[in-house]
Every structure is written in C-alpha cells, then in structure tokens.
Model the fold of this input.
Amino acid sequence: MKKPIHLYRNNIEKCSQILQNKFKENPKLSGEKSLYFYNVSLLENRLNHLREVFTSNNVLHAAAIKTNNIPEVLSHIVNLGYGLEAASFEEVLLAKTAGCPNEKIIFDSPVKTRKEIQTCDQEYPGMYLNANCFAELERLKETNNLNIGIRINPLVDIKAPDIFNVSNNRSKFGIPISEKKKIIFFALNTNNISGLHVHAGSEIGNIKGHIEAIGVVYDLAKEINHVQKDKIRFIDIGGGFPANTKKGKQEGLDTFVKELINRCPSIFNDFKIMTEYGRFIHTHNSFVVSQVEYVLDHTDPNIILTHVGGDLFVREIYSSHPPFHEISILNEKGQVKEGKQQEYDIGGPLCFTGDFLKKNISLPKVEEKDLVIIADTGSNSISMWSGHCSREKIKVIIFSEINNINQTG
Ligand SMILES: *Cc1c(COP(=O)(O)O)cnc(C)c1O
Done:
C-alpha cells in the first residue's frame, strides 16, 4: 500500500533557517521593514493530501481566493489542476488572470449584481455559480451557460465561533432548509439549476455537526432527484476545516471523509463533489518577519514597536476571535535569539492604540534591528490588507522548499 501523504508544518526554527538562506541569496532582503514568505511546496503538499483522501475522481477542490489572493499562489494552484472559489466578481477576474478554466471556477458572492451575472453567463460559460437567496435565483433564470447551485443554510449547530458561524437562523448566507418546499419547487422548475451548496462556517469545531450540515444537503439532493432523476448533479460541500496554529500536528481530512461516507453513503457515486477549503490549504504555508524599530523602555513591560500590526493582521487586531500565532524573536541575521527571557508587549506600526500583536509575551532581550517572526500567516492576512495609515504593502517572497522540513507532531 502507498504510504499516506504526510502533512508538513514548519516550526519557527525551520523558518529561521529558510530566512537565513534567503538573506544569503539576496542580502538586500535583510534591509526590508517586513517580509511575507509563502512556500508553494507546502501548498502542494496540502492539495495532494486533499486529492489523496477524496478518492473519487469526480471531485473539484477549489481553493477559497479570499483566504489568500496572491496572484502567483493562485496560478500555482491552477497549474496543479485545482480550481478556485471566488467570493466576489473581482475574485472571478483574479481566477481568470491565474489561468483558471471556467469549469473550475466557483462564484459565491452574496451580492452578485445583475450585470455581474450577465457577464459571467456571456464571458465564462461552464462556470459554477451558487445562488445565495430566492431573489438571486429569479435573476439567474435569465442565464443559459452557467452551472447553478443553491446555497443551503442547513441550520445545524456546528460549534464554530459565532463570527464564523453562518448556519443559524440570522445568517445572511444561504436559504434555510426550513424553506425546503420552496427550494424544491425552484429546483424542479428552473432548468439551469443543477447543484446544491453548503458552507456551514469556518473553524468548525465539531466534525459531527460539520458532517450533519452536509448530510442535510445530501438528503435534499436525494429527495429532489427522487422526483426528477439526475436533476442535482453536484454538491459543493464548502470549506471550514480548521487549521491548527498551536504547537503539534495538523489533522488531515481522512476521518472527515470516512464519516462523510458513513452519513452520505452514495455521495461520491451520485454527485460531482466540490470543496472550497481556505484555511486548511493556506495557513501553514507562510511566515512573516518584521524589523524591530524601537523598544520602549519607559513602559512596563517594555513595548516592541515593529512594522506589521493591524494592517496585515486585521482579524488578529480587530476581531472578537483573534487567530493564534506562534511568535518569536530573531537577530538581524535571522537566527533564533536565546538567553534570559523577559516580558514584552508587541505593538504594530499603526497610529491606533489597539494595534498590538501580543501582550505579555516572554522573549529574550530584544533590540533595534532584531526581527519579530510570526508563524502560520497563510490565511486571511495578506488578502485582508488594510490601508489604514496608508502604509506601503508588505513585500511578498514566494519560494519552494520541501527538503528537510521539520515534521511537527
Ligand atoms: C470563507 C469561505 C470558504 C473558506 O473557508 P475556510 O474556513 O477558510 O475553509 C469557503 N467557502 C465559502 C463560501 C466561504 O465564504
């Protein structure tokens, strides 16, 4: 039997080695205020894992563009044969620029305009589009060339953090399953509807709830097809699989797929399946370094001021559910600093007093020109870049390196 694909993760030590090599290759880099590194080999590893655990060959894995929208990263995904999920018309254009064929693009915005729908229908025949509400389904009656799915809100408790939970009765996403009669009526009476979509939320903490959310939609698809054979041809199961940013191992989707088949036995035989993973694909592929500009010694604890904060890390700074990152300190050359630890607060560059990456973190003595390193920055960071204070966007370095990756966990 083939050895299963190992899910790689780099730790700070390994990122520091990569950084030292990059500084040697290109000494100019060490003068940059901050750098965003993205490793496409790790990306490939994650995508290979998806291809491996979803054994059916009628599956399209479409990476969520909103999670990471770097053009080279998108082209890389497309060149490997995967698809892209667009959360806006602008992201559809990004997918096209990345060379994505129409039949591998999924368009999911909740506010698609009439004009956008018409353009997609005319310019991108074969594209997938999931409708978010009944009014959108009405607009879509005018189209001829799109594969249309209906986004369903399964109303299942998935135990996701509130700000990422879209599966409750006040959600702006999807038509609630309580409207089942009307959904079935629309599906059966609209020629170009051929699929159902569910994305129940992000960072789903409960695999049973996640599976049940898909199960609700699977049952609905079966029910519709019972009335009209082969009416529903695809089920888009969305994203939502969590990425672990604490120390330790990243769970693969092996168990998830097994449980999915237990709940929905013929899902891979009866339907084309789409996935739209974001965090799971991107989180671990990136790290950020940022120069220490000042250390304020008149505060207790001392405050490190550095060049990334609420601009790159919008969720971390502004949200009620800030993602966790390992953070450490390197010297000018990129080596991990050691020595007696003391407490610091790490402040970002914005003229806004909430702009702190971390408070009360124990670090070895920090000085001007040291580097703050932040791990697991691949998701919802650079794609959320905020222009507050009008600072220059962080420099991006795309690289490829799988050799000698430390296997954590
Ligand atoms: C955000 C989003 C995704 C990706 O979510 P992850 O939790 O990062 O996997 C997928 N599909 C839709 C519709 C989304 O809004």
Summary: The chain has two domains: 12-37+283-399, 69-277. The chain has a mean pLDDT of 95. The domain at 69-277 is CATH 3.20.20.10 (TIM Barrel).
